[in-house]
TrEMBL record, chain A:
Coiled coil: none annotated. GO terms for biological process: hepaticobiliary system process; maturation of SSU-rRNA from tricistronic rRNA transcript (SSU-rRNA, 5.8S rRNA, LSU-rRNA). GO terms for cellular component: 90S preribosome; small-subunit processome; t-UTP complex. This is UTP4 small subunit processome component. It comes from Oryzias latipes (Japanese rice fish). InterPro entries: UTP4 (IPR046351), WD40/YVTN_repeat-like_dom_sf (IPR015943), WD40_repeat_dom_sf (IPR036322), WD40_rpt (IPR001680). It comes from the Eukaryota.
TrEMBL record, chain B:
Residues 148-210 form the U3 small nucleolar RNA-associated protein NOL7 C-terminal domain. This is Nucleolar protein 7. Residues 1-28, 110-144 are annotated as: Disordered. Residues 14-28 have a biased composition (Polar residues). Residues 128-139 have a biased composition (Basic residues). One of its GO terms (cellular component) is nucleus. It comes from the Eukaryota.
Length: 685, 267
């Protein structure tokens, strides 16, 4: 196969942020996740849980709750504002001040006409949902104490509000509080501290279920205002509750990291006396579980350990299939590392700054198992801090390392670098073309003369780079403008083609010499996760969220023979069962038949000249091939060479000198920097 | 005998009743008693006319009322004097009226739109905005009489007081005292202890045990390995501390072994 010099990079201090709130839209099968830094991510549950869209956060935005209303997404936070997001332009559409102080919760009634927010000053404010925005309607009776959680009765006539030490039930018509349910404080020393009702759920049979900071899940009768049953599930707080669509199952998330399920079961078969019985406990988190969603088939939880866990319920899905597997989403499905191939530089994207590093060097060669000295350590060349509160949306560095660009929702910045003999100088390009706004993807051409930026309405802006100037050349527009944003941009190495992929699955290829659309690939049902154009053959390779790989010939405007044979024979089942998407595709100049792909747990070299793996044979056969004789090796080897030595991978790229750069982020490094977990006493420790 | 006895008793009584707190009536009666004693036993008691006693009673009442009134007036006087003193002090404390006026007008021009977390603040800013629209293009600082300067706040407090207090509430409820939290290091050590494969700790408690902190794993590690898919030449960075080097090599060795066993498990 060949020898590779591998730069194993572990100095990217990527730190994901905690999950604060989640909301699921059943009709669109989309999950919206709000993070601690104000970012909102949209996951497509129908497409292998792919992270479709990311709306970057702001340093002063602290989101406490999310709510879907038809296809619109609203969030409310401690800044006191209700924000509606534009999911096509990936930015907030507008924000409305609630004038009630910090907002703790937001909830929509089942008729989807009114939005209720619970505020710090003790008021529940009603907003009417209009076509173009929301409008304040009225306040319900003001209470003494902050409103922490809200839940509408399915009929829309009553609202349950969880406060401190009590739950209030309001009549939505008159606005008066009808019932006051007093929540018991904890036992022992916790009797002195007030109990906070972190979440409530109002069911259609007039029962209210509440989870509080004393670790209890209580079931109340809303008609009489009395407690029916109390379950103590943890010593710490019950931070979230979620009810299934058919109201037969309720899940509660705790500070310990467990998710407890309660189901309404009759005590004897056939009888109608349904009682809430604690059934399952899921221990999928190490830190607090702050956000929960109960979908029809799965329990989705997220919390302070930054992992999104989808646990399908085994009584709703078939056992031992891909559907029933536990899914953990740890890393973003978009690459945060950009590699300058000619210069050997790495650009790391953080929410508020960028870091540019130069890779180290070693001239010695050795044999297997040797440890070689490094002549030059990797050094951090530059840290570019972003001014302003918005977080960085995307960034890029040119292959020669002389241009660095990044964009936020409000602005684009371009810098010219000069590296000479250990000195680095940087100059900001001040006048950028005004067509460069709302940019979600940036890409430099391989000769660093052009900058490609995705812009509004699916168009791509081509700008020329020259000394210290950036001039607008052309705006490439596809024929039928897709409304969805562009999330992938890839330019070919010879400067002929530019490929742009949208989140709805469309991939457009533009001819850069004629500056017009060349062709549009047939739309595949799954969203593309990585695209790249081969330098010599001119084929476009695309990897999709359902782990399919396609190769399209740009000259002939049809799928290549290799791609057709791959579809005919099908990919190996173990390949299709992988749960992280391919985020980058690279090629080797010296070996045109090789394709480098990677996901979070493995990187793979596909040799297109070798036969494809058959379903009954082993996919991960590298270790086996090492042990057998060279003649047999030729018979047994197949096209997919997978290496799992490096984990967890954030980026794998091939430099121009044929050395591999592998950027890893060990999970232990992330876990050691998280907020403190609860102290649990385990037997024999 | 009884008379002598009576005299003794009566004299005693006479002495005890000489205190001024006793009411006029008893005084009078004791006086008359004493007088009676001095004269003789056989005399009839003195005649006190109805009118006299009535006058006495009225007089005593009046005296009592007068004394009460006097006390009240004294208190009032005291209070009034104190109030005046306070007013005086306050007047001394406040700045002269002209300076106050000037400052007020200057601050009205200069106050920018705040984050408007409170309703009255919002109203105020609305009125201020109107005033600001009328007066534009002013300098941002202004010197007044004396040593006062009025300037605008740069950027403003991004996080308002209410937001900060809400965040503090959340922080104290989850991570405050008495919430029984531990460190991530402890949790990872426990996981390590109970796991099937033990390995080195993620973070050493004693920091001088070969700088194996997360910051130090920024160095590159290059290891030369041979697999059938190619010979991977991964060069290892030389750590300054030999101990750390040995530890890190161990860590990678274990990791590679783990991967192999993982392979074995999967296939």
């Amino acid at each position: 196969m060949g020898e590779f010099v591998v730069h194993r990079v572990r100095f990217f201090d990527y730190m994901p942020s905690a999950i604060r709130a989640m909301a699921f839209n059943g009709s669109m099968q989309r999950l919206a996740v709000a993070r601690g830094d104000g970012a909102v991510e949209i996951f497509n549950f129908a497409d292998n849980y792919f992270q479709e869209k990311v709306i970057p956060g702001r340093s002063d935005r602290a989101i406490e709750a999310l709510c879907w209303v038809r296809g619109r997404l609203f969030s409310a936070g401690l800044s006191g504002e209700i924000i509606e997001y534009d999911l096509e332009k990936l930015r907030p559409r507008y924000s409305v001040e609630a004038y009630g102080g910090p907002i703790w919760t937001i909830s929509c009634n089942s008729q989807e006409t009114l939005l209720g927010v619970g505020c710090e000053d003790g008021t529940v404010k009603m907003f009417e949902i209009l076509e173009e925005g929301i409008q304040f309607q009225r306040n319900l009776d003001r209470q003494k104490g902050r409103i922490i959680s809200l839940s509408w009765h399915p009929s829309g006539a009553q609202i349950a509000a969880g406060m401190i030490d009590m739950i209030r039930i309001f009549d939505a018509e008159t606005g008066h509080a009808t019932h006051r349910l007093l929540v018991e404080r904890g036992l022992g020393t916790t009797r002195n501290t007030e109990v906070v009702v972190w979440s409530v759920a109002f069911l259609s049979n007039d029962t209210v279920i509440s989870g509080d900071s004393a670790g209890k899940v209580q079931i109340w009768d809303a008609v009489t205002g009395t407690l029916i049953r109390s379950h103590l599930i943890t010593k710490w707080d019950v931070l979230g509750l979620s009810v299934s669509q058919d109201e037969s199952s309720v899940i509660a998330g705790t500070s310990e990291g467990t998710v407890v399920q309660f189901q309404a079961l009759a005590s004897t078969m056939g009888q109608e006396n349904n009682q809430w019985v604690r059934t399952r406990t899921f221990k999928n988190h190490t830190h607090d579980v702050r956000a929960l969603v109960h979908t029809d088939t799965a329990v989705v939880s997220g919390g302070m350990d930054t992992q999104l866990v989808v646990r399908p319920l085994l009584d709703k899905v078939e056992k031992n299939t891909k559907e029933s597997a536990l899914r953990k989403i740890l890393f973003p499905h978009k690459s945060l590392v950009c590699c300058a191939k000619k210069a050997g530089l790495l650009l790391f994207q953080f929410p508020d700054h960028l870091e540019l590093w130069r890779l180290g060097e070693s001239s010695a060669k050795g044999q297997a198992g040797d440890r070689l000295p490094v002549m030059k350590n990797p050094e951090k060349l530059l840290q570019l801090q972003n001014k302003g509160e918005d977080h960085i949306c995307c960034s890029a560095v040119s292959p020669c390392g002389s241009w660095v660009a990044f964009s936020t929702v409000s602005s684009v910045r371009l810098y010219k670098l000069q590296l000479s003999n250990g000195n680095i100088s940087i100059k900001k390009v001040s006048k950028l073309p005004k067509e460069l706004h709302s940019v979600h993807q940036l890409c430099f051409s391989s000769d660093s003369s052009r900058l490609f930026a995705s812009s509004a309405q699916a168009s791509v802006v081509v700008a020329s780079l020259d000394q210290l100037q950036c001039k607008h050349l052309h705006t490439l527009k596809p024929k039928s403008g897709s409304s969805q944003p562009i999330h992938l941009l890839s330019a070919s190495e010879n400067g002929n083609w530019l490929a742009a992929a949208h989140t709805d699955g469309q991939i457009h290829v533009f001819n850069l010499h004629k500056l017009k659309l060349h062709c549009t690939l047939p739309v595949y049902s799954s969203c593309p996760t990585a695209i790249a154009i081969h330098p010599t053959t001119g084929h476009l390779l695309s990897a999709h969220a359902d782990q399919q790989i396609f190769e399209f010939s740009l000259k002939l405007k049809e799928y290549t023979a290799w791609s057709r044979s791959l579809q005919r024979e099908g990919l190996h089942p173990l390949w299709l069962q992988r749960d992280t998407p391919i985020t980058h595709i690279a090629f080797n100049r010296n070996k045109p038949a090789h394709v480098f792909l990677h996901d979070a747990f493995m990187f793979c070299i596909i040799d297109q000249s070798l036969p494809l793996p058959q379903a009954r044979k082993k996919l991960y056969n590298q270790m086996d091939l090492k042990t057998i004789s060279p003649q047999k090796r030729i018979q047994e080897s197949h096209a997919f060479k997978i290496c799992k030595m490096f984990q967890h991978l954030l980026s794998v790229d091939l430099l121009d000198d044929s050395s591999l750069v592998v950027v890893e982020r060990p999970l232990a490094d992330i876990v050691s920097q998280l907020p403190p977990p609860v102290r649990q006493k385990k037997f024999a420790t | 005998m009884t008379s002598q006895h009576g005299i003794m008793v009566k004299s005693k009584r006479g002495t005890t009743t000489a205190s001024p707190k006793k009411s006029a009536n008893t005084e009078i009666t004791s006086e008359t008693l004493c007088q009676g004693l001095e004269s003789s036993d056989d005399d009839a008691p003195e005649e006190v006319t109805f009118g006299d006693s009535k006058n006495e009673a009225l007089r005593s009442l009046k005296l009592a009322l007068d004394s009460a009134k006097r006390e009240k007036e004294l208190l009032k006087e005291k209070r009034r004097k104190r109030q005046e003193l306070f007013q005086e002090q306050k007047k001394r404390k406040l700045l002269p009226a002209e300076v106050l006026e000037e400052i007020e007008s200057a601050s009205l021009k200069k106050v920018k739109e705040s984050s408007a977390a409170e309703e009255d603040e919002a109203e105020e800013t609305k009125s201020l905005m109107k005033r600001r629209e009328k007066k534009r293009a002013e300098k941002h600082t202004r010197n007044l009489e004396g040593n006062y300067t009025v300037t605008t706040m740069k950027g403003g407090a991004a996080v308002s007081f209410q937001q900060k207090s809400a965040e503090d509430f959340l922080q104290s409820r989850l991570y405050g005292p008495g919430r029984l939290r531990t460190t991530n290091n402890q949790m990872l050590s426990l996981q390590n202890k109970r796991g099937s494969q033990k390995s080195a700790a993620v973070q050493f408690v004693k920091k001088d045990w070969g700088k194996l902190q997360t910051q130090s794993i920024k160095s590159m590690f290059w290891v030369f390995l041979k697999c059938s898919c190619g010979i991977f030449l991964i060069m290892e960075n030389k750590c300054e501390d030999n101990y750390a080097q040995n530890l890190t090599s161990e860590y990678f060795f274990i990791q590679i072994v783990l991967n192999q066993t993982k392979h074995a498990k999967k296939e």
